[in-house]
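Local shape tokens

___
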Amino acid sequence: MMRLSGIDWIAIVLVIIGGLNWGLVGIFDFNLVTAIFGDMSSLSRVIYALVGLSALVLIYTTSKMRGGNGMM
């Protein structure tokens, strides 16, 4: 069984945070990132970019866990 690295765990946390934020946007029309850091401020953009990169890391990690064929 493959062990998750520190990067994998950071990616998991960021993707969960991103998913919760999208849930808030969809259900309550409330964007937590915007509320905390401002509407498309530099920091907001960095957070959105990190969440997106984290999703790519998890796609790669998942493909490695499934045998490397890239198919889920």
